Hints:
By secondary structure, this protein is of the alpha/beta class. About 40% of the residues lie in helices and about 25% in strands. α2 (about 55-70) crosses α5.
Amino acid sequence: MSRRFRPTDAFVDESIRGQRYLMGCVLIEARHLADVRPAVAALGIDGTRVHFNNESNRQKTRVLSTIASMPLRAIVTICYRDHGVTEYRARADCLTALVTELQQRAVGRLVIESRQDDHEDELLIRRVRANGPQLVFEHRLGVGEPLLWVADALTWAVGADHRWRVQVDQLLDTVIELRP
Length: 180
């Protein structure tokens, strides 16, 4: 009998593709963190961070293939920025949808890749987060957290053309499309 997937931790990064703002969220169970982190870290070339904007197609294929075999699931939110929707508004809408989804799944910890507007994220999460179940969150630099590399890779692949997305489709639990 297989165990039901019960993620405890979520790792989030974003990607912007034309008029689409994508936010990818990788879900993992605590029991797999100690094995998955070093496996992902080993994917970097010469000990450097994996960042999909800077990788060759060969490296992207290798990384996505490895990620697809890991005990992970994912949620991706896509905000279509039609009619003057700003990047700030798209990010807020995506993050709001993710926080709601994570609380419905009783995920207890959210790690978001740090960027210049962390304070805005914090205010938003505090405003939209329900009283329960508990969801703690923090921002981290991508260079120090390999599971953020996975969120980057997955989000990039979903936003790219079909040949890249099919490599991660089996990990996608939910794709939430937003049209503010």
